[in-house]
Design brief:
Length: 385
């Protein structure tokens, strides 16, 4: 590998560390994030900065020897961030989507991996003599620290698992939104999915690298493979960190937070209250609250004077629908009435779906096809036959 690529590689890692520290300060000072989300995102960014510095010291020839001249105790300190950054990313996602997110005592278990790492390294490396530490750091003698590489691979696996859990949370979030909101088309989660998926891929490459290093203790491994895999993760991380703050700052306020535990919206009842059924059907028919595009589960509960738990149970058990389906099915029935009406013969489909409460053409067409097996235009044509 020539000197130009090596210098660019060092520069990218250094810039990544600097930007992470800088962005962490920006996030904490910004008013666009909830305080707890701001601190979690800042913590994740700081962990990425420590990882970048660790990589710079460990693999950057110039930095490694400068650090060795200063003190070998600086080696492997930044590697501790591998044991906490996945948890920070996971909790950041939770704090974004759950309005009632709070830390509890059981969450302290997520600190166990980083505590175990430093306890192990204290005995295996930091309490050893200076000659031993210099040999390990200077010549990459990981075999002298017998469990370091397997421990490193476990850390990379753990953080990869946290990222997968974060991606799973995002997927479940959209389903949970349907219990609370009738219009979810405007809630764009593509930026959050892109961010987590990008880090997931980076973490996978770093996990792959850790596995190859273990193989290198027993077999000859092509060094160029390690170099190019490492470089690809560095450059990908540099771009992802920049996109992370940009998209987070732009879109975080558009997220609709939900309750972390849906238990207060469901209740096991021996039978559904007929009074609530009659009240719901009468109110939906007479007042047509579904025509309001921004209607929510909470607002409907207040309008009906039905407790949220009972309303949720009634929708699910009697009507066999969640709130999202319940409201939009009423909107479809209203749209069908307008399509049949002579007064709306010259009115466009767009005007009709907007009038009945839909904000999204695709959502309207999806529900209409499901209900009638055809598009609104085709339905209108059948009426004129």
């Amino acid at each position: 590998m020539n000197q130009v690529i090596f210098n660019a590689h060092d520069m990218v890692i250094g810039m990544t560390a600097f930007l992470c520290f800088f962005f962490s300060l920006v996030v904490v000072a910004s008013k666009r994030f909830k305080p707890i989300s701001a601190y979690l995102l800042a913590g994740f960014l700081v962990s990425q900065a420590f990882i970048a510095l660790h990589e710079e010291i460990l693999y950057g020839t110039q930095f490694r020897f400068v650090t060795l001249d200063f003190s070998p105790n600086f080696f492997f300190v930044g590697a501790g961030a591998f044991y906490i950054d996945g948890a920070l990313l996971y909790f950041y996602i939770r704090s974004l989507i759950y309005s009632d997110f709070r830390f509890c005592k059981t969450d302290l278990w997520h600190l166990v991996p980083i505590a175990m790492y430093f306890i192990y390294m204290l005995n295996a490396f930091y309490l050893q003599d200076d000659i031993f530490k210099r040999e390990v750091a200077q010549y990459f003698r990981y075999d002298l620290i017998q469990q370091y590489l397997p421990l490193d691979a476990m850390a990379k696996t753990l953080r990869f698992g946290y990222a997968l859990c974060g991606l799973y949370l995002i997927g479940k979030y959209r389903d949970r939104l349907k219990e609370v909101y009738a219009d979810i088309a405007a809630i764009d989660l593509s930026w959050l999915k892109l961010m987590v998926t990008s880090f997931l891929l980076i973490m996978f490459v770093e996990l792959l690298l850790a596995a190859i290093k273990i193989m290198g203790l027993f077999y000859v491994v092509e060094i160029d493979l390690l170099i190019y895999l490492g470089l690809s993760s560095y450059y990908a991380k540099f771009m992802t960190i920049n996109l992370l703050l940009f998209f987070s700052a732009l879109n975080v306020s558009a997220l609709k937070r939900i309750q972390q535990k849906p238990a207060d919206l469901t209740v096991k009842m021996a039978s559904v209250n007929q009074e609530y059924i009659d009240r719901i059907e009468a109110y939906m028919s007479e007042s047509k609250p579904y025509l309001k595009a921004n209607i929510t589960f909470e607002s409907l509960s207040e309008l009906l004077d039905v407790p949220p738990r009972e309303l949720s149970a009634t929708l699910n058990r009697h009507f066999k629908m969640n709130f999202y389906e319940f409201i939009n099915n009423y909107r479809i029935e209203e749209a069908k009435l307008l399509l049949k009406s002579a007064a709306y013969k010259g009115v466009t489909i767009t005007e009709i779906f907007t009038e009945v409460g839909f904000n999204s053409k695709s959502v309207f067409y999806t529900f209409f096809r499901k209900a009638e097996g055809m598009t609104p235009s085709e339905y209108r044509k059948t009426l004129s036959i």
